[in-house]
């Protein structure tokens, strides 16, 4: 008779390429379709031929814990596993008297893959002179109620922030963002985030680490807006990592930044200054600058404009696409919902500008590149070869975005309501228009002073003062003036 060779749980787990806990869970009392096993005293033993027959009868789904999959599911399974504890641990409380100050200690057993038979854990529930044993019992039950649903972390491979950013964030998140956002985030990641967080494990980064990084950047002299852009980039990275279940919370959610430093208000250029700039320009830069002024559009929206988006009959223009760094993309969703109305004078000027382009079709650019007619004009070219050169001749500093601010400010002081200006500039929130695109005006301030003065036109002179009250001030200070003055 040939002796049968039995395997221990560890040997069987190694042969099946699974964890020991997988074996123990399928030998517990009440387990569905349990593994064939025998008891050698208190130890479990398995016969390989019986296990093979069990596997064939049960199907391959019994070993699904060891299947290799790709993508975020594999990463999620390797990183974290949620275990259901059917043992319903209750624990118990004991009084520790072998210390200087007696306290109640809570004890309970925790089961995981590395400790299938359980391991003891303890916690100081409170000192004897402060709480009763009944209160200690309540604290232990509250503690264990949270442990019943806590997430038990399995052994994992360390994943640094650099590995996650280069492997997932840059490939799966950024390609779907606008070109301006994509370029900005790439620069922030390269210059600020990877040098500081690159070698840190992403699930070990805490809020205090992010706050310490921000404090260092403040000490380096970075501005408030730059710090805000860095914080937004970090939030996006941690938000995507949380969706992939690498994190439980976002450590960059509650970061404190320095307050904005108040600066003296800047006046926008006058109408005469803008007219002088337009006169100093040549086409197509003159028409481009004029178009930005009358519509208040972004420079990228003007460069991405095609003739088919201009409705000459309805006297309006639709901004459906924009150009950034020579790359075309869609405008913001709310921008393409409503057109920008134009007057008959502007429509006539656009017709004359179109006549200079022979055989222009609806798919042609309104402002093409001077050297490449099939490409749109870039912002850098329009700035350096057009607007910046003309502004330098007049001794002023002016940008394309500055013309947009000028339009919002002039419309407001000419009596146009904020809601209409918001729609014309393409803002999602009217507060953006009011707080950032309506600038201070000295002329409007002087007019406000005249209006405030006229509010009290019926009270031009001071009240008449009787001779008997000369030198006596009515009110609290009257007593002080009546006191004799002593010269020292």
Kindly describe this structure.
This protein is mainly alpha-helical and 488 residues long. The strands form four sheets. A three-stranded antiparallel beta sheet has the order 1-3-2. A three-stranded antiparallel beta sheet has the order 4-5-6. A three-stranded antiparallel beta sheet has the order 7-8-11, with no helix packed on it. The chain has helices spanning 9-16, 20-25, 48-58, 72-79, 133-147, 161-173, 179-197, 207-219, 224-243, 271-280, 285-295, 299-303, 344-355, 379-393, 400-413, 418-425, 430-436, 442-454, 478-482; strands at 6-7, 38-40, 43-47, 92-96, 103-110, 119-127, 310-311, 316-317, 321-324, 327-330, 340-341. The chain is elongated and about 100 Å long. A hairpin with a 2-residue loop joins strand 9 and strand 10 (327-330).
**Based on the structure given, which CATH architecture of the largest domain is correct?**
Orthogonal Bundle
Helix-strand makeup class = mainly alpha
What name is given to the CATH topology of the largest domain?
Answer: hpI Integrase, Chain A
Helical proportion? 40-55%
What order do the helices and strands follow? EHHEEHHEEEHHHHHHHHEEEEEHHHHHHH
Residue fraction in strands? 5-15%
What is the total domain count?
Answer: 4
Contiguous low-pLDDT stretches (5 residues minimum) are 60-88, 150-155, 469-488
Rg, Å, rounded: 37 Å
The CATH first-level class of the largest domain comes to Mainly Alpha
Terminal Cα span: 131 Å
Shape: elongated
